[in-house]
Design a protein that fits this description.
Low-confidence stretches: none
Largest sheet: 3 strands, antiparallel
Length: 115
């Protein structure tokens, strides 16, 4: 299930306006594309400094790409642990460790109500 969740996140990221995104004036988020500047959204807040929501939104595409890449790397390591376990490299310990890692990822991606 973790890979399906990650695929959905990556699909939404790929469908969004390509980045990098940036805040340029009073909470306006924009992206520079080959066709010029594209407005993404506007946040509202103090005009004298970058609004935290605008900074967060502007960084979201790059942050999401980094985080999904990191999770994919961890899942790939779990696959490698499975491969080693299948080849007899202390299969119980390796299998258990990979299972714990996968469960932690699943729980993080699919929190239960109230968490």
């Amino acid at each position: 299930m973790a890979r399906e969740v990650l695929d959905g996140i990556k699909g939404r990221l790929a469908a969004a306006t390509p980045g990098p995104w940036g805040e340029f004036w009073q909470g306006h988020i924009h992206a520079e594309t080959g066709n010029g500047t594209v407005g993404i959204c506007q946040t509202f807040g103090p005009e004298d400094r970058k609004h935290p929501n605008a900074v967060f939104i502007a960084a979201a595409p790059a942050d999401v790409a980094r985080l999904t890449g990191a999770l994919e790397a961890v899942l790939a390591e779990c696959d490698e642990m499975d491969r080693r376990a299948a080849q007899g490299s202390n299969p119980h310990a390796v299998d258990r460790d990979a299972g714990f890692i996968r469960a932690a990822i699943e729980n993080a991606l699919n929190p239960k109500e109230g968490q």
